[in-house]
From TrEMBL:
UniProt KW keywords: Hydrolase
Record's protein name: Acyl-CoA thioesterase
Record-annotated membrane-spanning stretches: none
Record lineage: Bacteria, Pseudomonadati, Bacteroidota, Cytophagia, Cytophagales
Top EC class for this record: hydrolase
Organism this protein belongs to: Hymenobacter bucti
GO terms for MF: hydrolase activity
EC number: 3.1.2.-
Keyword check for Methyltransferase: no
UniProt cross-references to InterPro entries, sorted A to Z: 4-hydroxybenzoyl-CoA_TE, HotDog_dom_sf
Protein origin, superkingdom: Bacteria
Length: 134
């Protein structure tokens, strides 16, 4: 990482006050993570083959600027920390307005789960290397 994705805020992402709803920030952060992992060969099909998946323990959002319908935003993610074996990690997302101002940060702590045993697991070496902090 870092990796970024650009989005245009849609009506469905708004709250009754006319700005982006709180859960949309988490949705955009999650989508950015999925795109980043897929860009390194770890898409949903690959996770199915490996029989592992990501889980979150904590998600924290700090709201700094309002975002409205039709605005273009950029979501950048980076691995902030992780265990040496890649089993646990923290990813920090920064959501930027089109003018470059930071609108929010989303921080998630997660790990990998063995989908058959339903227990935490260590990922394959290639994924562990990807999850090391840069």
């Amino acid at each position: 990482m870092p990796h970024s994705q650009t989005y245009t805020v849609r009506w469905a992402e708004l709250d009754p006050n006319g700005h982006m709803r709180h859960s949309a920030y988490a949705d955009f952060a999650a989508d950015q993570r999925v795109h980043w992992l897929a860009s390194h060969g770890f898409d949903l099909r690959k996770f199915g083959e490996l029989r592992i998946g990501p889980i979150l323990f904590r998600e924290e959002t700090k709201y700094l600027k309002e975002i409205h319908a039709g605005e273009e935003i950029r979501v950048e993610g980076r691995v902030a920390s992780g265990t040496p074996d890649g089993a646990r990690w923290t990813i920090e997302h920064t959501i930027y307005k089109a003018d470059g101002r930071v609108a929010a940060t989303v921080t998630v702590d997660g790990a990998w789960i063995d989908l058959d045993r339903r227990k935490l697991t260590v990922p394959p070496a290639e994924l562990a290397a990807l999850m090391s902090a840069e």
